[in-house]
Structure formats: C-alpha cells, structure tokens
C-alpha cells in the first residue's frame, strides 16, 4: 500500500484544538488527534537529529543514494549516543510532550502533493485506498473508545 494517510478534513486536528478536558468527541476527531500526536513525535525526532547533525538542516546537493546514506549514518550515530549516554540534553529539550517544532512539516496536514507525479487515475486509486484504510482505523477507534462515528 502506497500513499499518504491524510487526516479527516473539517475536523479538529492540531493538538492546540483540544484544550483542557475537551478531548476528541467522535471517532474522526480521535483519528485526527492520534495522527497529529504521532506527527508531533516524528517532528520532534527530526528536530533532535537536525540539532545534533546540522548537515540534515540543509542537505548539500548529493545524489539521493548519498543523502540516504548520510541520514542512515546520522541515525546510527544518534542511536549509539542514546544507548551510551545517561544524560542527553537534546532529548531533554525535545522530549516535552506536545512540543511543536516551528517550521517543520507541511503547513496543511491534509496536503496531498504526494500524488503530484502520478497519473490522475493512479493518484485517485491510491487516495481511495488510503481513505479506505483510514476509515478502517477510524472504525476500530469507534469500537474501542465507543465514540460516535
């Protein structure tokens, strides 16, 4: 399965949309909240990597293979540091729950430019496939959390 698992449009999405005890009220909002939370964790991980390895902030115009190898090497070194360092200032800094990393990620989480280089028919097929997959997750959340669809 290839594609981007987009959040539901027209539903609350960002962590800041759920202040205090006003948690998700529907399965669609629960999915969006989980999507936003996961995206936030991923952005914090990239924030730590970029802070530790500045080359990742502005990757030189190397071949795609070399760029991939640089990212893998940075992750391996980072993991080594994490395993062998009792105190990690970067993880303390980026380890705050619900921390938003400015300038990271697309401004619109439902942006579907992932499909820009595909044929119209193929991109529509993939979008329908991912929407169906997302609906399956939403239905599971509906049943597990007993939220309205």
What does this structure look like?
The protein has 149 residues and is mainly alpha-helical. It has one domain (15-145). Helices cover 53% and strands 0% of the residues. The chain contains 4 helices and no strands. The chain has helices at residues 27-52, 64-84, 89-94, 120-145. The protein is flat. The two termini are 25 Å apart. The model has no long low-confidence stretch (mean pLDDT 82). It is found in: Nucleus. GO terms for molecular function: hydrolase activity; metal ion binding; nuclease activity.
Structural key phrases:
single chain; 149 residues; mainly alpha; 53% helix; metal-binding; HARBI1_dom
List the helices and strands and how they pair.
Layout: H1 27-52, H2 64-84, H3 89-94, H4 120-145
Helix pairs in contact: 1-4
Offer a quick outline of the entry.
The protein is mainly alpha-helical and 149 residues long. It contains four helices and no strands. Pfam families: DDE_Tnp_4.
Mean pLDDT across all residues, rounded? 82
Any idea what the shape is? flat
Q: Which secondary-structure class do the elements indicate?
A: mainly alpha
Largest sheet: none
Rounded to an integer, what's the Rg over CA atoms?
18 Å
Query: What is the total tally of β strands?
Result: 0
- This entry's quaternary arrangement is single chain
Helix share bin: 40-55%
Query: Poorly predicted ranges (pLDDT <50, ≥5 residues)?
Result: none
Distance between the termini: 25 Å
Which sequence of SSEs, written as H and E, runs from N to C? HHHH
Strand content: under 5%
The count of domains is 1
Q: How many helix segments? A: 4
